[in-house]
Amino acid sequence: xxxxELFARAxxxxxxxxxxxxxxxxxxxxxPRFITRAEGAYMWDAEGQRYTDYIGSxxxxxxxxxxxxxxxxxxxxxxxxxxxxxxxxxxxxLAEAIIALVPGVEQVRxxxxxxxxxxxxxxxxxxxxGRSKFIKFEGCYHGHADAxxxxxxxxxxxxxxxxxxxxxxDVVKHTLVLEYNNLVQLEEAFATQGAxxxxxxxxxxxxxxxxxxxxxxxxxTLRRLCTQHGALLxxxxxxxxxxxxxxxxxxxxxxxxxxxxPDMSVFGKVIGGGMPLAAFGGSRDVMSQLAPLGPVYQAGxxxxxxxxTACGLATLQQISQPGFxxxxxxxxxSLVAGLEAAARDADVALVSDSEGGMFGFVFDSALPxxxxxxxxxxxxxxxxxxxxxxxxxxxxxxALYEAGFVSAAHSAEDIAATVAAAGEALxx
Length: 428
Ligand code: KE4
Description:
Blueprint: H1 3-13, E1 35-39, E2 42-45, E3 50-53, H2 68-80, H3 89-101, E4 107-111, H4 114-129, E5 133-137, E6 150-151, E7 161-162, H5 169-172, E8 175-178, H6 183-193, E9 197-202, E10 205-206, E11 212-213, H7 216-229, E12 232-237, H8 248-256, E13 264-267, E14 278-282, H9 284-287, H10 306-319, H11 324-345, E15 351-355, E16 358-362, H12 371-375, H13 379-391, E17 394-395, E18 404-405, H14 412-425
Parallel strand pairs: 3-17, 5-8, 5-9, 9-12, 12-13
Antiparallel strand pairs: 1-2, 2-3, 4-14, 6-7, 10-11, 13-14, 15-16, 16-18
Helix pairs in contact: 2-10, 3-10, 6-7, 11-14, 13-14
The structure holds ligand KE4.
The site of ligand KE4 has 19 residues, from α4.
């Protein structure tokens, strides 16, 4: 069947034909590609077309597809059993591996998705502080838990409005939505409501509005205000964790802000290596509030699944190899530098940024610092570029507001071919 035939068939039995909305290509138009298999840096669709993959399952596939050591670990684990509903040693090993790599985390709880991790971290922050209000930022996505599906309210630091039907206003009335990188709003929100704020949840490098870095002053101020007012600073590193650096974005900021640490961290994607696994963690003191020790309930049938933990552990072992991130970061930088050079040659305004194996680019002359600026960039040109690249066998994120990902399997030749395709696509 062709992609179009599969899409028509899928839409008969699955809402929108997809099991996650962004896969439907609605932001860029056209027919989604139904992938049959992937290997290394490549994916093949139902029509046999090969794509160089810059999505990597939206971040998890940092090694590329089908890494032999990971495949071997998963096959061995599967032979021992898929799920027990009882503790296993491998969950301890994965928790120990995460804690060893992220200094601010003393204990972790494993779950099955980033949404579950973010939702649980919010509940834990509220339970640990006894407070209900929390701050998030426009353009950041923390999964689809009700309280987190909120857009900015009208005016400064007013409570948010649901971004989704089915979310009662009551559920989001404690959610303050501020502008990313806006120090004035942050200071004012804490000045007026600091004693009521349970936590601030932020994507330290926001990959859900393309690729926007929180400024160092913004992170420093966040840290100071949270400490001053007894609020917990929660870093949502589902996308950036073990992707922008071995220690996540928090390790990047700790190099710029001596001693910096968030109070809680949320992980996903890479730590599952492509299988359903996520986590949230923090100090022993905060984490001990969780059931069965404490009053904050959280649970999951497949949490710490033995096959998923094998996949995650094998992935972490590979990315912990000396030089892994230096090589990956250099490869990613060569991609974005190539895109910028191709745009200059085509006399097209394009700016980009990258950290580790994660990148973003927009058709504009300056790097956007917040959601409004990202959405003001040239979307029509992005969509034309997306399809021109797809037609040339390069699979970018099918939405202007998404980040891109390079894997260890992307060779210098792959990057060169992508840049050459971009040179053509920019003139298409
Ligand atoms: P999941 O529930 O999709 O595993 O994770 C939610 C989540 C939480 N926090 C951050 C920072 C995230 O990026 C995500 C999920 N990311 C999207 C990509 N923008 C996943 C793709 C999709 O929704 O299909």
